[in-house]
Design goal:
Elements (H helix, E strand, L loop, with lengths): L1 E5 L3 H10 L4 E3 L2 H6 L5 H14 L4 E4 L5 H14 L3 E6 L2 H12 L4 E6 L2 H10 L3 E4 L1 H5 L5 H15 L4 E4 L5 H10 L3 E4 L1 H6 L4 H17 L2
Parallel strand pairs: 1-2, 1-8, 2-3, 3-4, 4-5, 5-6, 6-7, 7-8
Helix pairs in contact: 4-5, 5-6, 6-8, 8-9
The structure holds SN-glycerol-3-phosphate.
Length: 218
């Protein structure tokens, strides 16, 4: 499973990259705003800065909601760096734009996906990634992980190449369950990745190993 970090914070992206397990980055307009990145030039420069840190797969989201606007914006974003994946919302014009980007060889991430039907449309349009939002589905008292399993099943039925990118991951259990189900990618805050490190028996075991070594060598 690929690990993407879901942030526009350069320090967090550097930390995740330095850990050696990072496969990409996802951003969205809210995450960019959280970092105070506003204005076309600053936004472009920030995406470039992210691309300079990671090896591949930097999702940059379009703001337009009409077909022509999305095409213009997506083409410009894709020229920033070959690592850019154009993130397009799951709306009618978005599906049409994904189809066109696919024809042009521009990779896409279809975002704001909350149903299997939407995921099917994204795959048929040729999206490189589909982003179902697990946490936000959980927030309305429906199990978001069930959607990941449903999409995995449907894509496997027909051999769709669209990668299932589980998004809106809030904690390690989400991530581990996604791995069990067979999501291709998990995107999450850095904390979820570093939380995977934690186990009290690891800490206790290490302490004992070091104490025994010290005793034997003193
Ligand atoms: O990748 C989508 C993600 O940023 C949404 O996460 O926690 O705002 O639902 P959240």
């Amino acid at each position: 499973m690929k690990f993407f970090v879901d942030t526009a914070n350069l320090n967090e992206i550097r930390e995740a990259h330095d850990l050696g397990v990072l496969d990409g980055v996802t951003t969205n307009p809210s995450l960019m705003a959280k970092e105070g990145i506003a204005g076309n030039d600053k936004i472009r420069n920030h995406y470039k800065a992210i691309c300079d840190i990671v090896d591949n797969n930097v999702s940059a989201e379009v703001i337009s909601t009409d077909y022509e606007g999305m095409l213009k914006e997506g083409r410009e974003l894709s020229k920033i760096d070959k690592k850019i994946v154009v993130k397009v919302p799951m709306i009618k014009d978005g599906v049409k734009a994904i189809k066109q980007f696919t024809k042009e060889g521009i990779r896409t991430n279809c975002t704001l996906v909350f149903s299997a039907g939407q995921a099917l449309l994204a795959a048929k349009a040729g999206a490189s990634y589909v982003s179902p939002f697990i946490g936000r589905i959980d927030d309305i008292s429906v199990d978001g992980l069930d959607l990941i399993a449903q999409i995995r099943h449907i894509y496997d039925n027909y051999g769709y190449q669209t990668e299932v990118l589980a998004a809106s991951i809030r904690h390690t259990m989400h991530l581990i369950k996604c791995a069990e189900i067979g999501a291709d990618v998990a995107t999450c805050p850095l904390k979820v990745i570093t939380d995977l490190l934690k186990h009290p028996l690891t800490d206790i075991g290490l302490e004992k190993f070091l104490a025994d070594h010290k005793k034997a060598n003193s």
